[in-house]
């Protein structure tokens, strides 16, 4: 892990079978397709319904990926948990599987907690895992977790664990926050949480992006990452943003699953675990129309 | 479980040892003292730092209580979890241990979820546990979970599972919401989440209360529950409220632990798991002064 992971990563959506169990066949197939599109695997993210998976299920999927020979150094599993022992267990498992890094939510049950308390949590995880291979990416997603990762907390963690605190996913949706991180920290890789900020991010030193819609549109996002200094970059950014916004008219996670289902003629892909609900028939039909307007395809993505 | 649990319950605070592991000795001692004060055990509540405990730790503590011969039909363990399989596992374990009921948070990671999604979650838990002994108390605590349990959701659940949906803990802190629940539903036991609403609650048919400060002040709260029709009830309610507000000047969970530590000359009781932090020295000294002003004691509460 001497070279830190960069580029476009997808918080891989998790398919479920009729009994609402993780469907490993469909999941591996999606992981493989994403890798074929040069897209890294941020498995167990918000869009993966990771917090709707048990710790045992997340470990089972991680093992499934490793056993299937997926490139674990293109993986950044989410290993955050409200309970310290579970965050330690998941993080250790990811490191031992050879993951490029882990993406870690703060503990998100209690609200209004202090930076001292959050520092203690991350610090305990790092010390208990006790493995020099650990690359920890913080996960700032205040709209969902409601517990922010402040700039001051990042600074304290970087000072205490400079080799381990590797970067952040910023899903605040607030460019001024992303820019503040890019301006303030060194040796700290910032991934905006949406491709909407990819070009602006790269111009200010971002490491790539980790975006929900990379589940379905990874090729075009990766192309911009690769050639962002080209003359037509702004135009391509605008097109990526236009597609993103079109998808975001729908509830994001069910919409991504519906798009995969529509693209592979496999409507069962649309299943979600409660408390999320799949798109209804009208939403699905409207989404199909939206995709047509974009001449949208998932090149090479076949069923299963 | 023909008679539903009533009265005053305490979300039992969880002591930790120097390595931040649950301290079963101190925990059992606290559980036993609460039972001696006629206080029921809402173990694994918000004030128990339950979401900072792993599923394995919660199961271990539940077994410890059962093995120690604690009266499980005075228990209402918290069994909510973001992940359906974990909510099922914890709920099943509680039912099998003979708990009077379970107190269940909605899945709390995703925000703005629909009542359809929450209904599906609770419904799946009930059907997968599949045990007629299950008495499920919903847990409405919007300031922390940020995912509310609406009146309409309660109605749908009561219609679908009338024998199983047993009641609610309302920690909204909003009396009008508590009163709306009391007015609207039958065969549905409402426990306000603070003794501040105990007397008003009982006057409108509440089943008791489940309150943080019952960890330290259970006797006086239970006394009001028992004799709330007496002439001095309003006066005693005012005194309970005055004490509650004095404690609530401090961060509640660390303050409760500090009070137990001060009352048993055992400062190690003050430990919390991250992201919570113990009271600092100044806070502890001020809290000790506050307790003196109230001539506060925990009768019969000895060390360990």
From TrEMBL, chains A, B:
Pyruvate binds at residue 210. Keywords: Lyase. Pfam families: DHDPS (PF00701). Gene3D superfamilies: Aldolase class I (3.20.20.70). The active site is at 139 (proton donor/acceptor), 169 (schiff-base intermediate with substrate). SUPFAM superfamilies: Aldolase. GO terms for molecular function: 4-hydroxy-tetrahydrodipicolinate synthase activity. CDD domains: DHDPS-like (cd00408). Belongs to the DapA family. PANTHER family: BLR3884 PROTEIN (PTHR12128:SF67), DIHYDRODIPICOLINATE SYNTHASE (PTHR12128). This is Dihydrodipicolinate synthetase. It comes from Roseivivax marinus.
